[in-house]
Amino acid sequence: MKRVLLAAALALTATTTATTGTTAATAISPAPEESPAPEETTSMEETAPPEETSPAEETSPTPTTSPVGPGCAALEDSLSGLADQPAATALSKVPDLSMLAQAVKQAGLEDKLNSTQDITIFAPNNAAFEAIPKDVRDKVMADKDALAKVLSYHVAEGKLSPADMEGAPLKSLQGGELTVKGTGDDLTVNNAKVVCGDLPTTNATVYIIDKVLMPQ
């Protein structure tokens, strides 16, 4: 009987020891380390929108000069389109210059006036030709050389504005000189008045005048 009790006591002691060891082991076992939380990745900074580029400044159109002279208003309708034509062709488009256009053609100067660059033409209107006695006019119109000489006297070197003509006399293609006086709507060339001027063509500037100029 004593042996049975001793065996039971030993068994109980062993069980208690084992349980205590397991508990102690569990108590001293380190807790598993928590995995570090992944670092938050900062979202890519928003790209600043490109700076707006200001649109290129529009080129201001080259200002066109207004014709000068008291007769421009009456001629306005017939002067449109001159800027796109060479000089002799432009003259033929203006009804009030029909006699001059005929004289230019008769003198054989059409090609010269169309092709010569940078000239100023003082263009007598029809009234200027009609003011010349018919017999004198017919005589000059029949003489090609004399006619070319008279018409060349109406052409000066350079595309001249009214301001350009102030001061020194102008040299004509005929060789003589022309004198311009006055300003604005009150311009004269020698003894002729400017009816309407500062009219551009592709190669010339035209001034319509009220008299035919005679070489000096």
Automatic annotation (TrEMBL):
PROSITE patterns: FAS1. One of its GO terms (biological process) is cell adhesion. Residues 15-71 are annotated as: Disordered. Transmembrane segments: none annotated. Keywords: Signal. Residues 15-67 have a biased composition (Low complexity). GO terms for molecular function: cell adhesion molecule binding. Residues 84-213 form the FAS1 domain. GO terms for cellular component: extracellular matrix; extracellular space. It comes from the Bacteria. Pfam families: Fasciclin. Residues 1-20 form the signal peptide. This is Fasciclin domain-containing protein. It comes from Nonomuraea zeae. The lineage of its organism: Bacteria, Bacillati, Actinomycetota, Actinomycetes, Streptosporangiales.
